[in-house]
Amino acid sequence: MRASNPTSLPISPAIAAYGMLTLTTLFWGANAVAGRMASGHVSPGMLTMLRWLVALIVLLAISGPRLRDDWPKLRRALPHLMVLGSLGFALFNILLYSALNFTTAINAAIAQGGMPVAIFLLNFLIFRMRPGILQIVGLILGLCGVAMVAAQGDPANLATLQINRGDALLLLAVLVYASYTVALRSKPAALHWQSTMTGMSAGALIAAIPYAFWEAANGDLLMPDATGWGVVLFAAIFPSIFSQSLYIRGNELIGGNRAGLFINLVPIWGTLLAVIVLGETFELWQALSLGLIFSGIALAERFKPKT
Length: 307
Description:
Elements: H1 13-38, H2 44-62, H3 64-99, H4 105-112, H5 115-127, H6 133-150, H7 155-159, H8 165-183, H9 193-217, H10 226-254, H11 256-260, H12 266-277, H13 284-302
Helix pairs in contact: 1-4, 1-10, 1-12, 2-3, 2-9, 2-10, 3-8, 3-9, 4-8, 4-12, 5-8, 6-13
Membrane topology: Multi-pass membrane protein
Organism: Notoacmeibacter marinus
InterPro entries: AA-Vitamin_Transporters, EamA_dom, EmrE-like
């Protein structure tokens, strides 16, 4: 009888990747709920700074040997990585957490579904990646879905520019993260993920510190209480370290194009968690906006140019 290979996976690599990527999007969706829970318990700048401080400490603890091996390459790439981290890790989360002081976690989750639409538009504007007719239709559907979130389901709010402050911040956060995603094209590819994450986390921490001081200067700084510390630790471990690790491994198993589609699950997880954990109400217009965003993404993905 043939002996089993102890190093073989009990499940196929594809199934393993699906599980990893599903957990990744679950943690990202939970980040919106955690940010809503943080309101009144820790200020956005302090939450972002402490989140990346904890993440950086953990990464330094587990990545020491790798960082020593990669240091010659990491030293050259560090300024670039820190800029990326300050944009995608710090500024995005500051805007997201600030928005959640004024809007719902469901809106935050749905708005993040507009990221692929924003990425698509930026790639066209910057890299002249020309869309097809059905891609343009998909883009318009996605923009309509995001606009519905900003208008709180009432188009009259757009006509009179009556947009909730929180939803305006959400739209800005989506644009920032889309810019970060497009900028990742120039990320150094030779570095191990632990070195890359450490460099970007350091950039995020440094970028968040001035905003925390600005909160203090304006009397808005709120040090975390017990609930705030719970949110800090959750955000540092799950949406940050675990999600990035699982996402990178999922990419290795099934490739970046297929793995990237899983970001479409973020609004679903975020909406479900907001209803279950926070008791928020899921309105009909929110379901419609979610449907428009997903329809737009599906068309844009289905008819994107082959590379």
